[in-house]
Write a structure and sequence with these properties.
424 residues, alpha+beta, BirA Bifunctional Protein, domain 2, Rossmann fold, 2 domains, eight-stranded mixed sheet, five-stranded mixed sheet
Length: 424
């Protein structure tokens, strides 16, 4: 019978890969908590209209990439393609704003987009990120950007760059879009088919195109959005840059950085890796001051970022930083027969309840084979148990790295391990 494989565009996270995922998630918990962010977990699927209204019906995500289905009650539902709209839906539904004027949230989990699978793009992928809801001020922007940069520093990545821009408020952006269309109209026929399709629907997405000719046209003929900002938005962006300078956060002002989602306003930013080819964005985010109101809540300024886990791992592998050591067993107990195994079961459970990593043989192998297994797992100590050890109550622990042996009483085993493991 033919074996069944995973669905195209999805990937198993294998047992030997999990420690790195744990490291990433642990850093999220510790780093974001250090700045007062609390974790939120939203449903994997939402009402389709949430994403249509929040992301924009003409965005690629909504028009081409969402996994949408009708449930048995006739309601249209969508597997979440991004987190921000879900977080804001939760914020509105549960009236967070009645609890406090400012909320700091972080998340980690799977997302779904029906894209063409390639390096750095999967149909089920994972993101982590943070949302700061309630502040309109530049220091909020700077905190979000700095936390994103701190994450990549602490995880060990070296070869990355921060790109920032401002796309102004909605009125400024609409004025800019009219100027942009007028400037590029003579060159529409020279754009790639995708950009031609985006020209009327979502012209700002032209800046995301990877086609070299399209980029040449933009470089030559497209005005810079930063030149069309209001004085208030220019001052806001300048102050964001000032806060980054004060913290010695290096950045590049990138006039093409507009981001692909309709809800963005003012500050936008991306962190890019030099190891990921065309799909080089590790992290992206920005301000979305109108989204809460557009989804039915009170007018609430907000900013956040989202970062791809799979792309992070690709970058770590490229920089040879993806190796994570498994926690070795504190003690490997090798029973010489089934009777000996019955005698050690209660001790194994007792030691595990004390917090030690205890492994034993479950394949009834020879002592020689069990010793090889203890070495393969890099156990700190190993002990062979037979009737003599069970009857006398005394066993001999061998430290595998030094070869030193220690006689220990069963009743004192936990105390011995606690005192002995740390010095090694």
């Amino acid at each position: 019978m033919k074996a069944i494989k995973a669905v195209k565009g999805t990937k198993d996270i294998l047992p030997w890969e999990i420690p790195l995922w744990h490291q990433i998630e642990t850093l999220c918990k510790e780093l974001f908590a250090s700045a007062g962010y609390q974790e939120i977990r939203t449903p994997v699927f939402e009402k389709t209209e949430l994403f249509a209204r929040g992301i924009g019906e003409f965005s690629d995500i909504v028009s081409k990439e969402m996994y949408t289905f009708q449930d048995m009650g006739g309601e249209w539902l969508t597997l979440r393609p991004e987190f921000t709209a879900s977080v804001i839906r939760s914020y509105i539904q549960h009236h967070y704003y009645q609890r406090a004027s400012l909320h700091k949230l972080w998340y980690f989990g799977p997302l779904f987009r029906q894209e063409r699978p390639q390096a750095g793009r999967l149909r089920q992928f994972h993101q982590f990120g943070i949302e700061l809801i309630g502040s309109e001020y530049p220091e909020a922007d700077a905190e979000i950007i700095t936390l994103a940069c701190d994450f990549y520093k602490k995880i060990g990545l070296k070869d990355w760059e921060l790109h920032i821009n401002s796309i102004g408020n909605t009125k400024d952006r609409l004025n800019y879009i009219e100027v942009l269309k007028k400037s590029l109209t003579p060159y529409v026929d020279d754009l790639c088919p995708t950009c031609q399709d985006r020209f009327d629907k979502n012209i700002l997405r032209l800046f995301d195109c990877k086609n070299e000719l399209c980029q040449q046209i933009l470089d030559t003929h497209a005005p810079k959005i930063i030149d069309y900002l209001s004085e208030k938005d220019k001052a806001h962006f300048e102050e964001v840059c000032e806060y980054l300078d004060l913290q010695n956060v290096p950045y590049q002002i990138n006039s093409k950085l507009v981001r692909g989602l309709d809800y963005y306003t003012r500050t936008t930013f991306e962190i890019k890796s030099n190891h990921l080819g065309a799909q080089d964005a590790l992290c992206g985010g920005g301000r979305y001051d109108n989204l809460v109101e557009e989804l039915g809540g009170p007018s609430t300024p907000s900013i956040g970022f989202a970062a791809g886990v799979e792309r992070l791992i690709m970058a770590l592998e490229a920089e040879e930083k993806a190796s994570v050591q498994l926690s070795p067993p504190d003690l490997y107990i090798a029973p010489i027969d089934n009777q000996a195994y019955k005698g050690i079961v209660k001790y194994c459970t007792h030691l595990r309840n004390q917090g030690f990593i205890i492994e034993t043989d479950l394949l009834r192998r020879s002592v020689k084979a069990m010793m090889r297994e203890a070495n393969r797992k890099q156990a700190r100590f190993v002990t062979v148990i037979g009737s003599e050890e069970l009857n006398s109550g005394t066993l001999t622990l061998k430290h595998l790295e030094t070869g030193q042996e220690y006689p220990v009483n069963w009743d004192n085993l936990g105390e011995f391990l606690e005192k002995t493991i740390l010095p090694f």
